[in-house]
Amino acid sequence: MISSKINSIRFLLIAALTLCAFNTANAESQSQNYTVQPGDVLHVSVWKEEDLTLDVLVRPDGHFSFPLAGDINANNKNAQQITAELSKKIQKYIPDPVITVSVVQILGNKIFVIGKVNNPGEFIMSHDIDVVQAMSMAGGASTFAGLNKIKILRRNKNGKQTAIAFKYADVEAGRNLEQNILLQPGDVVVVP
User: What is the distance between the alpha carbons of residues 107 and 41, in angstroms, rounded to a whole number?
Assistant: First the structure.
């Protein structure tokens, strides 16, 4: 009886450790894949260089300034790519620098939900979010919302804006699910 309880405890412990390891690996892969956006705050540290440990804000142009490195383009790059660029520029002054870049605030990774929803506003995307999830974040549609006339406004790199149609009734019925797209930073969901 005692041995069966010990085996049960062992099984639960192994299952918990496996789940914990999976979640840690998943979080690490997501953080490595996250691309920095204007408005994000990065923590940059150079090992053994106290004066080179700073939090920096990514400007609206996607760049930030850092001592000894000057202007760094961070837009749509992950932390690993930014680290490589910083290392390349700083190694002129510090041989073999050990640099760590981490995203401490993802304030630039926002979407907006406006119109006839219960809580319109801007929402930070800490992970991939589709249209239905964004509407849920906004408290759902209000009573007289035009659910089959929803538009997603998206601006491309050249500044041109496009409107993507979304019919809630189709998604609710399990049809045309491809229209429930993943939103990108800066997208605006308009619920008429």
Answer: 7
